[in-house]
Structures are given as C-alpha cells and as structure tokens.
Amino acid sequence: MRLKKGKPVLNQSLKVLFLITFFFISLSVSAEAEFKFKRTTPLELDNQFLAAIDEEVKFIIQRINQILLIPENVVFLFGAEDGPLYDPLLKQIWMPDDFTYEVIERFEQANYVENEQELFDVTVDVIEHTLYHELGHALIDILQIPITGREEDAVDNLATILVIMTNEEGGEVALSAADLFDLEGDDRQEFTDEDYWGEHSLDYQRFYNAICYIYGSKPDQYQYLIEELAITEDRAELCIEDFLRIRTS
Ligand SMILES: [Zn+2]
Fold first, then answer.
1. 180 CA → ligand 1 middle, Å
2. CA of 20 to the centre of ligand 1 (A)
3. Distance 176 CA to ligand 1 centre (A)
C-alpha cells in the first residue's frame, strides 16, 4: 500500500525528547568537530544515480552540522561493506551502497513510483531517515546519553521527528520511510524468533510509530492516514499530544 500522496508510538516520547534536546542545544565543545561525508572508493563515472544521491547526502550533513555541535568527528562512510550501522569504536556511520540498491528495488517492485525522478526522491527520503537513525546511535554514544528501554525505538522515533522538523515538507519525507517499513512488512509474512527478539521493532510497528508522528505534526493534512489505517480517535489524539510535547520542549 502506498500512503504517500503525490505533491501536496508512543511512550517513547521521553527518550526522544531527551535526544531532541541534545540535538538542538549547542554544547560547549570544540567548534572543529563535525559530521563528515566520506566515500570509501570513488564511484564509477557512469553511476550518476549514486553520485546524485551523494550530493543530496552532503546537503543533509551540512544541515545537520548547522544545528548540532558534537565533541568529536563522526564520519558518514558511504560505500561501506556493511550496515547501515554505527561503529562506536571508529566513530563511523557505515552506509553500504547495497542498502541504497535494496531500497530502490523495493520501491520499484511495489510500483511505488511513476518515474525516475520520483524514485530518486523517495530513495533520498529513506536514506535521510536512515542517516538520522544512525546519528541517534552516535549521539547516544558520544554524548553518553542514558537510555532506558529500547535504543532502537528511541532512535527510530528521533529520526522520524528530525526528518519532519528539518524539512519544509518533512511529513512527506517521513512518509516515504514509513511506506518502506510497510513494504518490508509485506515481504515477511512469516515471522521468525529473530523478528520478535531482534533489535528492531517489527516493520509494521515501525510503520505505525512513524505514521503517528507524521499525523501528529499536521493533523489536517494527514487526517486521511488515520482514516485509511482505521486508527482510533483516542490513539490519534495521543499522536497529536505526543508530537506537540516534543516540538515545544
Ligand atoms: Zn539502529
């Protein structure tokens, strides 16, 4: 199902709020440290799709550096051999190109997009959400933020909220990521033990959490999400409260 239109949970709030606070305040740290972009080996000249994505990623990282000061450098390593992951020893966020290709393939298989430009846009949306997710792990590590409960859920929610708050039409960006969780959920009809005990919440759960914040950010614009997904009014009300609480903190 595609919930994102054309042009135009919960209980994690405290942890998210904690992270957001750290994200937006300036810390008394050396101004030299920042998030950096790096590619392992140069792309083939004819790989214009990935090259264009790299350029978008550099913009996103610039934006991150404008709102966040960190005490030591963290490198976003593209073309990494594993990931997406954060390596606390190297202070690196690994982003493999295979991940990008998988995202593209999923969207294509589901006929999610109508043309190359749309495919590019939604792929960048998902990468942006993923960058913020891994950045959440990095912040917890380098700022030594204590996390009770599931770190994965906290950084997932952080990613959704940062995507919404740092983009003009952030709900649309977050919706691409949410729709991908949904597609991933569709791909897995059977659940293994690993799905239940693994670090990440089930894809559908990640999907609903994201939808909740998206709706909460602009209830009028996203009323249709609540209707299509048959989310109860009480639950929807909580989504709004949750988002407002985080935004005004
Ligand atoms: Zn994670």
1. 16
2. 17
3. 18
Could you tell me where the DSSP H helices lie in the chain?
A: 13-24, 48-67, 97-109, 116-142, 151-166, 170-187, 193-197, 203-217, 223-228, 233-247
First to last CA, the chain: 34
pLDDT in tens, the chain (249 residues): 788 876 544 345 666 776 776 666 555 455 689 999 999 999 999 999 999 999 999 999 999 999 998 999 999 999 999 999 999 999 999 999 999 999 999 999 999 999 999 999 999 999 999 999 999 999 999 999 888 778 998 999 999 999 999 999 999 999 999 999 989 877 765 555 555 555 566 788 899 999 999 999 999 999 999 999 999 999 999 999 999 887 765
Give residue 153 CA to ligand 1 midpoint distance, Å: 8
Strand order in the sheet with 92-95: 35-39, 74-78, 92-95, 85-87
Q: Is residue 125 part of a domain?
A: yes
- Provide the domain count of the chain: 1
Output the CA 152–ligand 1 centroid distance in Å: 5
How many A from CA of 193 to the centre of ligand 1?
A: 19
In a domain, 127, yes or no: yes
Task: Tell me which residues have their CB within 5 A of the ion that is ligand 1.
Answer: 152
Q: Is residue 7 part of a domain?
A: no
Span from the CA of 46 to the centroid of ligand 1 (angstroms): 32
Note down the domain range covering 183: 13-247
Distance 114 CA to ligand 1 centre (A): 30
Nearest to 178 by CA among 213, 216, 131: 213
Does some domain include residue 4?
Answer: no
